[in-house]
């Protein structure tokens, strides 16, 4: 499963999530740290990534353009990197369902 961590999520999670989400990457590590949301969206679409983010921008984009890119929207507010790691691990099955179900476009996690 290919997760693309947005700029607002620590790139330290890439290593920590490799066992459960082996193709996880981060916009910074891909040279997309100053890319626009549109550029990140297009990269995710062209490379079959699910975007993991803490802001609404990508969700709002999916409302306009459809589910070309799947989104995991972490609506947890400011929280630690460790907490985000635990949340993603806890919701592993939900994330698998998001990946496989063509009718789903966004998984919101509170």
From TrEMBL:
Residues 1-109 form the DUF5615 domain. It comes from Candidatus Roizmanbacteria bacterium RIFCSPLOWO2_01_FULL_38_12. The lineage of its organism: Bacteria, Candidatus Roizmaniibacteriota. This is DUF5615 domain-containing protein.
